[in-house]
């Protein structure tokens, strides 16, 4: 039997490449005669660029940037056949922030914009952005400022960076916008299908879980609504209506509105580059793994896996850390993983994956004995 293993990473602790090796080893203990095809995957979230380069043989470009609060940091991105591949979260990720109101309100994606500028300086005119967890509230304003777009307050002064100041933006000046952007294709590889605002939007769907006060959450939501209305008056683009708009701290919505970037499902982008259709051929079973398996998540990574499986009539077994869907069209069986809370996240993930794939492989072994 040919088994295709397709894990997404669960966090920064273990990469998808690490996970697929764990799955393979445990599976073959009970089914040594099965053919295993390893396909570590990414949905555009953390590790997207690195995994693409590792699997396709590109190069790593090193440069300097700044973190979400403006402090200098060393950074890098990938390059492949004339295309730059950049992870927003590498320099603008929430993992670089303290969980307090001040950091969240002032955090900016300016550093991610500097990476794009570096890629433009080096001649790249196609850029793929992995739109994982970016700065949690500036909706890409900092990134756009790094590319020359100036956001001004009522007095004509350059606005402060960060979601806490979005409501002060009253004007926008494009005269210094980087002219090379007009000749550059920018693709946003998005990992979450959430809209920018509302109960499941950027603030109440994601930022709420980072220890931010109720007052600051309300302020951020109001500021984003204000900025979205301002943006629509300037560009005629409604950021609130964009599926995937909440991605990367709302940067998906901001880049789409001001730079007319192409918004894509990150898993679809990854699968296309890795020629996933060829890996699916003659497969008897797909075993996949993702952090979340619940109704909203099924519009992201899992939905693409299911689509390919259905097109090729392949059964799917899914493993998930957070499972709220036990019966979903296209998934034949769902196995929750019990990842225990511990200081050593890597060890906790490893043990949970080993245990769960062990149970799955034992069940398949019973079938193979028939």
TrEMBL record:
InterPro entries: Glyc_kinase_flavodox-like_fold (IPR018193), Glycerate_kinase (IPR004381), Glycerate_kinase_RE-like (IPR018197), Glycerate_kinase_sf (IPR036129)
Superkingdom of origin organism: Bacteria
Keyword set includes Mitochondrion: no
SUPFAM superfamilies with a match to the protein in the record: Glycerate kinase I (SSF110738)
Entry annotated with the keyword Chloroplast: no
Gene Ontology MF terms: glycerate kinase activity
Keywords from the named record: Kinase, Transferase
Pfam families recorded: Gly_kinase
GO biological process, one term: organic acid phosphorylation
Family listed: Belongs to the glycerate kinase type-1 family.
Protein name per UniProt: Glycerate kinase
Species of provenance: Sediminitomix flava
């Amino acid at each position: 039997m040919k088994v295709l293993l397709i894990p997404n990473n669960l966090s920064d602790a273990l990469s998808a490449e690490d996970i697929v090796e764990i799955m393979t080893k445990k599976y073959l203990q009970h089914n040594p005669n099965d053919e295993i095809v390893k396909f570590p995957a990414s949905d555009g979230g953390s590790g997207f660029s690195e995994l693409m380069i590792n699997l396709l043989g590109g190069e790593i470009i090193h440069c300097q940037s700044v973190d979400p609060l403006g402090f200098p940091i060393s950074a890098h991105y990938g390059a492949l056949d004339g295309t730059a591949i950049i992870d927003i979260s590498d320099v603008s990720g929430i993992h670089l922030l303290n969980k307090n109101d001040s950091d969240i309100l002032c955090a900016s994606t300016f550093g991610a914009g500097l990476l794009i500028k570096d890629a433009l300086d080096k001649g790249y005119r196609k850029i793929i952005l992995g739109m994982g967890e970016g700065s949690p509230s500036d909706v890409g304003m900092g990134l756009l400022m790094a590319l020359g777009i100036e956001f001004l307050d009522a007095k004509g002064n350059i606005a402060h960076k960060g979601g806490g100041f979005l409501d002060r933006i009253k004007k926008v000046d494009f005269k210094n916008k980087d002219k090379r952007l007009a000749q550059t294709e920018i693709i946003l590889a998005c990992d979450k299908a959430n809209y920018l605002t509302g109960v499941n939007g950027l603030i109440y769907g994601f930022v709420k879980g980072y220890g931010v006060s109720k007052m600051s959450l309300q302020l951020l939501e109001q500021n984003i609504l204000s900025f979205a209305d301002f943006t629509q008056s300037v560009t005629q683009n409604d950021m609130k209506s964009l599926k995937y708009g909440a991605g990367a701290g709302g940067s998906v919505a901001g880049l789409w509105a001001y730079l007319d970037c192409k918004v894509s499902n990150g898993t679809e982008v990854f699968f296309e580059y890795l020629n996933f259709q060829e890996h699916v051929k003659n497969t008897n079973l797909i075993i996949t793994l993702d952090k979340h398996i619940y109704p909203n998540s099924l519009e992201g990574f899992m939905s693409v896996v299911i689509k390919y499986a259905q097109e090729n009539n392949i059964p799917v077994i899914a493993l998930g850390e957070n499972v709220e869907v036990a019966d979903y069209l296209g998934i034949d069986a769902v196995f929750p993983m019990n990842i225990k809370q511990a200081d050593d996240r890597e060890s906790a993930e490893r043990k949970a994956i080993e245990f769960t794939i062990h149970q799955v492989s034992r069940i398949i072994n019973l079938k193979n004995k028939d």
